[in-house]
Amino acid sequence: MTERLENMKIITTEDYNELSEKAAKIIASKLILKPKSILGLATGSTPIGTYKELIRLYNEKIISFNEAITFNLDEYYDLDYENVNSYHYFMNKNLFSSIDIKKENINIPSGLAESLEKECESYESKIESCGGVDIQILGIGRNGHIGFNEPHCKFGSTTHVVSLDEDTRRANARFFRNIEEVPKKAITMGIKTIMNAKEILLLVSGEDKSKAIYETVYGNVTESVPASVLQLHPNVTVIVDKKGAKFL
Ligand code: F6R
After folding, report:
1. Residues annotated catalytic, as ranges
2. Residue 1 has pLDDT above 90, yes or no
3. Is there an atom of ligand 1 within 6 Å of 208 CB?
């Protein structure tokens, strides 16, 4: 195990609500300082509270998404956008339908594209042509994955198609009727895409993530714990609740 690097700022919160409030404040301040912010967004359970809090700030007219552009981390392969498990559906339900973001400024990789390879290339170049992600929100998997970059992924990867790890499919099966329904493939921003974001906000909640975040922060930088690459990013903030911070 190595020493924690100074560039990782760690904020420990009492609980999930405080985590969500703190994360939303950081994103809100970006939007206030730069209304045209390019926001990198994640799905999963962890950011739901943050999105709720952002909606509250929007309803109170403290922030607006009118000029913001968003890029989501990932999407399942071959799930209709209306499917309740698609990330398109998730983002609409948990954030986009309740704020003033322009439809044309929302970007989520399409798992329905005729050529997934072309979809990956054009996603990557769209991020670049917008000037790059200003702040990327991330959750973390129990196995240290970020986006759908599973253990042993390549640190040099850009947006690409992945086969999902059994552990990830099992963890995500809670949203489906059974594990067979969980897609075996997905499109995800690569580690290089994520590392290109100017700032990263990693949200960690619950004891089941405590080992993964410990290895991310204190472990060796290794492709077997994808999130450990964040030690090499110059501007990472980890917001972790007390349960997730068990070993920190
Ligand atoms: C979501 C994503 C995933 C999740 C991770 C944690 O877009 O890319 O890496 O962030 O699986 O998921 P939750 O928050 O459900 O524990």
Report:
1. 74, 143, 145, 150
2. no
3. no
Which atom of ligand 1 has the smallest separation from the CA of 146?
9
| pLDDT tens string 95-129 | 999 999 999 999 999 999 999 999 999 999 999 99
pLDDT in tens, 41-79: 999 999 999 999 999 999 999 999 999 999 999 999 999
Look at phi and psi of residue 2 and say left if phi exceeds 0, alpha if psi is from -120 to 50, else beta: beta
State if residue 146 touches ligand 1 by the CB under 6 angstroms criterion: yes
Tell me the per-residue pLDDT of 123-179, one tens digit each, with 9 for 90 and over. 999 999 999 999 999 999 999 999 999 999 999 999 999 998 788 889 889 889 999
